[in-house]
Amino acid sequence: MPEALTYVLDIDGNPLMPTRRCGKIRRLLKAKKAKVVKRTPFTIQLLYEPDTHVVQQITLGVDAGSKHIGLSACTDAKELYAEDAKLRTDVSNKLTARREARRTRRNRKTRYRKPRFNHRVHSKHKGWLAPSVEQKITCHLNVIRKVTKILPVSKIVIETASFDTQKLKAQLAGQKLPEGKDYQNGEMKDWLNVRDYVLSRDGYTCQCCKGKSKDNKLQVHHIHQRKDGGSNRQ
């Protein structure tokens, strides 16, 4: 976040342009012409109507992600706000623990109760989202609202992109970019399954000990689990 930058709200709570004039902010607070409404980031609200105030065009850029959200608000000349918001990644595990606790309780108290399929959420509410997905969407909206409360944002740009990994690998290797049926001729073509491909790719050598264990039987598994950001290639 920009250093020594104070965010300002007018008497009605609407955001104005931030300022770096710490001396003026100190005098306004001392004269009871402004009050502190938030300390992180430091935000004050004016208790009088200023004679003139100019609002510039501010663009808020949002880099949406599954674990982090990148935020940057800037004018044509300088950056006014920057943040790297971290999202929760424990929602799925907490739901699993809750489901197990409820299941054991039902087995103890209502052991012979028939399944009630009409009580399922997806059957009662159309357009229902998984709680982990809904939580991520809510967090994105909340961080955007937080910025718009302290800055007069005039435009919001959200970066959403899907990456073609096969095309990226071909571009880095200086090969022809795949088109159409080329996607069916990938590096796993003619292999029976992923296990055989991975073993051949790694030279039938353990990638953790690099063959020091001399184990004749190799187990195929993720070095970096998918829940920790790994992929099927690792």
Could you walk me through the main structural features you see in this protein, from its secondary elements to its overall organization?
It is a single chain. With 234 residues, this protein is of the alpha/beta class. The protein has a domain at 192-228. Helices cover 28% and strands 18% of the residues. It contains six helices and seven strands; from the N terminus they run E-H-E-E-E-E-E-H-H-H-E-H-H. It has helices at residues 22-30, 91-109, 121-124, 131-148, 165-172, 194-201, and strands spanning 7-9, 34-39, 42-46, 58-63, 68-74, 79-86, 153-159. It has a four-stranded mixed beta sheet, with helices on one face. A three-stranded mixed beta sheet has the order 1-3-2, with helices on one face. Strand 4 and strand 5 form a beta hairpin. It is extended, with a radius of gyration of 27 Å. 6% of the residues are buried. The mean pLDDT is 84.
Set down the secondary structure blueprint:
Blueprint: E1 7-9, H1 22-30, E2 34-39, E3 42-46, E4 58-63, E5 68-74, E6 79-86, H2 91-109, H3 121-124, H4 131-148, E7 153-159, H5 165-172, H6 194-201
Parallel strand pairs: 1-3, 4-7
Antiparallel strand pairs: 2-3, 4-5, 5-6
